[in-house]
Amino acid sequence: MGYTVTVVAPVNIAVIKYWGKRDEELILPLNDSVSATLDTSVMCAKTSVSAAPEFTEDVIWLNGKKESFSNKRLQNCLREVKERAAAEGSVDKNFLSWKVHVCSENNFPTAAGLASSAAGYACLVTALAKLYKVKTDVSSIARLGSGSACRSVYGGFVRWHAGSDPSGVDSIATQIASSTHWPEMRALILVVGDSKKKMSSTKGMKITTETSELLKHRIKHCVPERTTEITKAILARDFPKFAEITMKDSNQFHAVCLDSYPPFVYLTEVSHTIIELIHSYNEICRETKVAYTFDAGPNACLYMLESEVPKIFKIIKTIFPSSNPTKFISGLPINDADVSTDILGKLAVRTQEHDLIKYVIYTKVGEGPTDVLDGSHLLNELGEPINEIVE
Amino acid sequence: MGYTVTVVAPVNIAVIKYWGKRDEELILPLNDSVSATLDTSVMCAKTSVSAAPEFTEDVIWLNGKKESFSNKRLQNCLREVKERAAAEGSVDKNFLSWKVHVCSENNFPTAAGLASSAAGYACLVTALAKLYKVKTDVSSIARLGSGSACRSVYGGFVRWHAGSDPSGVDSIATQIASSTHWPEMRALILVVGDSKKKMSSTKGMKITTETSELLKHRIKHCVPERTTEITKAILARDFPKFAEITMKDSNQFHAVCLDSYPPFVYLTEVSHTIIELIHSYNEICRETKVAYTFDAGPNACLYMLESEVPKIFKIIKTIFPSSNPTKFISGLPINDADVSTDILGKLAVRTQEHDLIKYVIYTKVGEGPTDVLDGSHLLNELGEPINEIVE
Fold first, then answer.
1. Which of B86, B161, B184, B210 would disulfide-bridge B305, Cβ 3.0–4.6 Å?
2. Domain of B293?
């Protein structure tokens, strides 16, 4: 019957944080942001889209569950891809009138707060753009789904330009450098348990934008300077500089959340213990060897060069013991390392109680969305999900 | 033999926070601050000073323990009071050459992090000024002991002017309004347990001053505007405005601590639960009835008008149950209150585990330092402590 396209897309973790919108509907940010795109072989969203004349309605299955297609952000993405295709004349009008079936899955728990919507919307929009043969930059379409999704449209190190046009036409992502430019860059994601209900990013950004005095200074002075500086650090592969800016910007993002009214917090005491541990380790090394960054949740993403990974992982295992060590680490393989008892003794943080860090994912900077060409679609020939669906 | 003078002095809790020095030695602040002075009948420092020709050295006993008088801040205070006395010609030069004995006690645990050094230095300097008959403003001398001590030299609502003179001559405290101006103002101090070692104020201020980008905006824009606004609110007895500025400024102070590099935190998860509780209560009331403020530690000071106290205390007892209810509250008496189960049901915070708040002190805005005229000195006629000393 119709056509099916399948794509995988990466998550990205910002080092200069996006926080605050100048347009809620178009998802236009107040400031530029910078991120690294992470390897899809470890964490990714996978999306199949089908279009067929027989489909009676647009349908989406998300992580094994049928969801409403009436979601405005989803609608905006689909409409925009079709409009772009129509403008480019890439497919015929009849094809554009067919309904679509979408099936999308993340290969990591969405509940872990790991930027799943960025990967998901980048994947959806890339798949739709491929289906409709859109040739122009799709980052501004992915942005309509979830702001940070526009950065997942490219691999390597990516900058999302805030832009200034009210239409959002210049609010797009561009690549600063590909993943091969700095092949030693690695990330350890520390998933921290969180019992409290959290403030959604959308709501939190709105409160900060409306009430934080300090946000104004961040937007006007701090972010422009840091964006320039971290771009230079990436191009020069200057890890200590990259790391310092990354940590300072994470801290400042959480500071403006606290300066909001009412204030809100994403960092837990475990997050703060991780921060203290990293500063202590860097101080012992007399060089900034590791950077932490925290999104709107308690999980840490640690950036470091490949040579540091075995030592850092050993320290994390020691300070944050797990009662299930075999399931503690996933992703790329890590070699064993000895860490001198001297370093462990000097650390400002003592061994914590078990399971404060639930698990760790080891990954690296990787490519942008890629086509799945081996035929392993998530939709069958009738446009129905191949995997089990929970009703 | 010599002369003995005894004084009691109050603690004060800032509503516009002092954070950052422009001169470490003279303790000159980067910004103005505003506080309320709390009733000495509930919390105070008490200090006796004696001078006698027979004394061979300056000696100080602090909370039942002999301490070194070589402490620079202590030396600066004593030297400055004597210089002032000499300049004013208030006592004869021979008297100024006698050594002093000082005995000082707080009637509340110093470890609780309740601005004990502010009360202590205000008390010491006021006692010394009385001994040497200094007539001019002594707030700038108390400032040399501990910055915020200069605010404890006056009762009611007090402003510490940052000043601009490098000598510190204009960095003094003045009274905005006496305690009788707004007699309904009350404070509940919630003492929260804290296991972690904390960053000292002195060290924390230094890190923030040297590293926080956001502090610059706070100093230049936020504090001047807030100081003007809260002064108006105090003079107009506008509680909702007073409370809103108080909470925003507390949050901003903690935000700049987080924006420091390395970042540091004073608020614990219990502190954040208290913040959430107060915002939820105010929202239910559809009016800002209670303000929280946190100094460099996890304890909350809640400001409210007298009429709210029974209800708020009942809510605190319910949400933060104590395993020793009879010792949970001290200070002024509180009437029992019924809080409708409707309000309790609507609160965003559920009942917590026991003893997260260790105890509560109920107090009000009060007078500045006062002379103890009933002869209940802390030093006997030989200039030795009357109460037991721990060696």
1. B184
2. 185-364
